[in-house]
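Hey team,

Sharing the MFS transporter run so nobody has to redo it. Sequence (436 residues) first:
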Amino acid sequence: MRRVTFAAAVGNTVETYDYAAYGFLTVLIAELFFPGSQPGVALLSAFAAFGVAFVVRPLGSLLFGSIADRFGRKPSLVATLVLMAGATTLIGLLPTAASIGVWAPALLVVCRLIQGLAAGGEYGTAMTYAAEFTPRRKRGAMTSRVQIGSVVSLLLAAGVVLLLSASLSPQAMASWGWRIPFLLALPLGLVGLYIRARLEESPEFRALERQGRIPSSPAKESFTKHWSLIALVFGVAALQQIGYYIAFTYAQSYIIQLGFTPAQATLATVISIAVAVVLVAVGGPLSDRWGRWPMLFGLSAAMLVLAYPLLAALSSATSLGTVILTTVLLGVVPALYTSVAPATYIEIVPARVRATVFAVGFALAAALLGGPALYVSQSLVRMTGDNRSPALFLMFGALLSLAAAVVVRRRHPEVLTPDLPAHVADVPGARSTEGV
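Structure output:
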């Protein structure tokens, strides 16, 4: 189980690290790749390049989700990791606009598109793989451990950026220092590839193979028979996507715009993410005890109520201590929510199309809500002149997830399980579903 957990988590770590490294360097990337624009427009352009990766995530989810449901979880896990680590390394090698002009942002967008394609299948396949080794009574704990990899990678990316910002001059950071976080994706990816290449296939997929129940076209079956589950995954993922990227990525740029230094903004974000690691570890086991839907419902309701007061407090903060405290509080609900949601996705989809339905629903939420989160938040501030306005987008995500939690409640927990018969237990490493 430790090997399975680590193998699933390492890919999520690389994926989120790659995205986070870009997010924490957005202000600098805007200057290097969009230098001819006004500062506000350049930042929006950099956020748009961040968000473009999410546009192709649904395509990646169809491709790699179908591979996982048709040929096995392992091939999909290996392929997504190679693409993600490779594209991120290339970003670290790109010439800037000062060297090649408009080709620089164009190549940046191409690399981001490759990242998005890989990310579309990574998260859902990794969570599916880990959960299919785990009894339902421990599934929340297991998936939250995998989710810790994503949060730790945020901490790693923020820590690297903070260390570079503190040790290098602004000139050195703009010249070559910004490349280091992206180039680190190569050794991370090689370690992950070594681990995943040695994986066994999940017991539930092996059982489906034995029974001849592998779908010939997972994508077709997902959209014709399970479109409502895709919509439900989308709704559950709404707050996870928006909350995650606003609290742990956009917050850094937001604090800089309030007049604090990049080092101070990154420090506040690092502390917030460190607290989030603990909360993610706690949230999953709590959902095993209390149930998924009560926590989804309660956390969505809390975000709906607290989003605006928290952004108001952060926007008016005048000291670093206040900024840190408010940033930490802003991340509490997203951290707990992101520890509960993965087990929910697993339990509402039948095993034969689990990777595809999960990946597509989650990728659509990423493309329509998570990816645009930075751009939408910045646009709201720019259009309204109100630094509290990003709270409106957070509240929108909370409202969608609140409604999804109500639907999850109507599905009795006993039917939120794999659809394999009881004799799957004779497959080594598999769990019994007798009585389900």
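The chain is about 80% helix and 0% strand.

Ping me if you want the raw files.
A.
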